[in-house]
């Protein structure tokens, strides 16, 4: 900083860490070192403007005074908020002289991981002559840091064998990649019945097993029928041709699934169905009769629910069930009050005080005796009429609360009060001297004992006690109220080692 600058700047932190989606506050202390009032503007250089908010960009400072402002930082929770260190500069510029002051800071954006996976198509068909079917699996890295992702696929009954083109993917933040999943039956049957197996595709972070996503697919297998069976069926078809022509087609449920099959309480899932040859379709609970043979509905159950599909038509009745598991939602983190302070902590009656705080995980803020506050606020001004104890209560979404208290002393300028009474030094050697200093508010008479007598409301005098002496100041106002305060001077034969604290004042009645 140049030697001739008229402003100084100090920051509360040299480094700030934020996880995307969170916020932080940087306190800026500004000092006007000149002899003239000055208007100082605050700027932030080196950061995306969407990440920074300056509630009060300019501040007016009196000569040789200082002030405190704040800079709010908020990082959006998206993959573009790349993890890493972002050095930036806070600049204070005098709008009167053009002088500037700089303070470097480093913003550390912490990493977060999130994935999503998609499967296309949702259903694959395998026949005897074409035993392998292919799906496209697309994995999206929704976090802000590169991830190595491993892919898995399986079904509960081991009906199919699943092979990925590549099992491990390296994805940059915000990137997506599609690989081919080959599926085939574990047993190829020439004679038998068709099977539908639901299988699960999982994408899991290699370095963090808790970061994983799932999606569901279906493998439909058709066996090969023998020539004898074909001949018999052909003969039967010829014999029953007329009957077969008029016979209604059987009702068939081609698909009935829920995605995802497991949700947390308060989450949603999508229920899908595809029915053939049905004139009436109903799904219970919650949905009821539907008109579409193929469709989907979003569901929001409060607990684990079994959905039952019944399809009716001329060809009969078909039923199928699917279970949606609802897991309890995780308990939100507890609220915390990091700091709660008043500036200044003591004021004269009629002067304002600024209450400021830092809280975490708060959905609701209460400040007594002021009332409920916006949880995004970090400070408020008040003008207490008397000494007041403020209570800050932070409450999270689960109703858990934490509180802190602080007291602001309010001084009445018209009240009788001894503002200052002290001896300097309070310990002297024999033959030495000390100075008594005093300052009294709203007094008509001020008297100091031990031979000093009546004195003006403010002043000082030199004393030379020969032994340990306690001096008592008595202040009296026009109403006859009396306030006293005492200070002790210790006389030693050797130079003093330490200064004892002064004796506290004690108010007296009339």
Walk me through this protein's architecture.
It contains 2 helices and 43 strands. The protein is mainly beta and 510 residues long. The chain has 4 domains: 103 residues, Immunoglobulins (Immunoglobulin-like, Sandwich), CATH 2.60.40.10; 213 residues, Immunoglobulins (Immunoglobulin-like, Sandwich); 76 residues, Immunoglobulins (Immunoglobulin-like); 92 residues, Immunoglobulins (Immunoglobulin-like, Sandwich). Strands 36, 38, 39, 41, 42 and 43 form a 6-stranded mixed beta sheet that branches. Strands 2-9-8-4-6 form a 5-stranded mixed beta sheet, with no helix packed on it. β8 and β9 form a beta hairpin. It is elongated. The chain starts with 6 loop residues before the first strand and ends with a strand.
Care to give the gist of this entry?
The protein has 510 residues and is mainly beta.
**E-strand count:** 43
- CATH architecture annotation name of the largest domain: Sandwich
Instruction: Characterize the biggest β-sheet.
Output: 6 strands, mixed
Number of helices: 2
Give the termini separation: 59 Å
- How many distinct domains? 4
Query: By helix and strand content, what is the structural category?
Result: mainly beta
**What would you give as the CATH superfamily of the largest domain?**
Immunoglobulins
The CATH topology of the largest domain, please? Immunoglobulin-like
Shape: elongated
Instruction: Give the mean pLDDT.
Output: 87
Low-confidence stretches: 504-510
Radius of gyration computed on alpha carbons = 40 Å
As a percent range, the share of strand residues is: over 45%
Helix content: under 10%
User: What is the C-level CATH assignment of the largest domain?
Assistant: Mainly Beta
């Amino acid at each position: 900083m140049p030697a001739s600058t008229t402003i100084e700047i100090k920051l509360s932190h040299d480094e700030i860490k934020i996880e995307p989606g969170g916020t932080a506050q940087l306190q800026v202390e500004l000092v006007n070192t000149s002899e003239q009032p000055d208007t100082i503007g605050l700027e932030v250089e080196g950061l995306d403007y969407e990440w920074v908010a300056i509630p009060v960009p300019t501040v007016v400072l009196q000569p040789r005074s200082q002030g405190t402002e704040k800079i709010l930082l908020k990082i959006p929770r998206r993959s573009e908020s790349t993890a890493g260190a972002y050095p930036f500069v806070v600049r204070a510029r005098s709008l009167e002289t053009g002088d500037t002051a700089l303070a470097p800071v480093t913003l550390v954006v912490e990493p977060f991981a999130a994935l999503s996976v998609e499967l296309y198509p949702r259903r694959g068909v395998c026949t005897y002559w074409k035993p392998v079917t292919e799906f496209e699996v697309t994995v999206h890295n929704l976090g802000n840091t590169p991830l190595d992702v491993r892919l898995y696929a399986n079904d509960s009954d081991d009906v199919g064998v699943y092979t990925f083109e590549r099992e491990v993917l390296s994805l940059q933040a915000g990137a997506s990649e599609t690989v081919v999943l080959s599926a085939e039956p574990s047993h190829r049957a020439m004679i038998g019945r068709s099977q539908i197996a639901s299988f699960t595709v999982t994408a899991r972070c290699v370095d963090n097993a808790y970061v994983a996503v799932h999606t569901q697919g279906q493998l439909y297998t058709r066996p090969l029928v023998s020539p004898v069976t074909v001949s018999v069926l052909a003969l039967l078809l010829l014999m029953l041709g007329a009957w077969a022509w008029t016979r209604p087609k059987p009702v068939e449920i081609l698909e009935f699934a829920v995605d995802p099959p497991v949700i947390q309480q308060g989450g949603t899932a999508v229920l899908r169905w595809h029915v053939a040859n049905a004139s009436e379709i109903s799904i219970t609970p919650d949905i009821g009769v539907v008109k579409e043979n193929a469709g989907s509905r979003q569901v929001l159950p409060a607990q684990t629910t079994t959905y039952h599909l019944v399809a009716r038509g001329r060809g009969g009745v078909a039923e199928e069930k699917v279970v949606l598991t609802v897991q309890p939602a995780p308990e939100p983190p507890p609220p915390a009050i990091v700091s709660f302070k008043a500036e200044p902590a003591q004021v004269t009656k009629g002067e304002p005080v600024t209450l400021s705080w830092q809280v975490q995980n708060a959905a609701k803020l209460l400040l007594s005796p002021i009332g409920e506050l916006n949880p995004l606020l970090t400070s408020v001004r008040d003008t207490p009429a008397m000494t007041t104890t403020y209570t800050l209560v932070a409450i999270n979404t689960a109703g858990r609360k934490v509180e802190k208290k602080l007291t602001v002393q309010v001084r009445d300028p018209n009240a009788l009060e001894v503002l200052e009474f002290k001896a300097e030094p309070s310990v002297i050697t024999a033959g030495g001297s000390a100075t008594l200093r005093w300052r009294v508010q709203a007094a008509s008479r001020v008297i100091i004992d031990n031979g000093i007598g009546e004195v003006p409301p403010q002043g000082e005098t030199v004393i030379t006690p020969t032994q340990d002496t306690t001096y008592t100041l008595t202040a009296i106002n026009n109403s006859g109220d009396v306030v006293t305060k005492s200070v002790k001077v210790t006389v030693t034969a050797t130079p003093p080692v330490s200064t004892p604290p002064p004796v506290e004042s004690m108010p007296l009645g009339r």
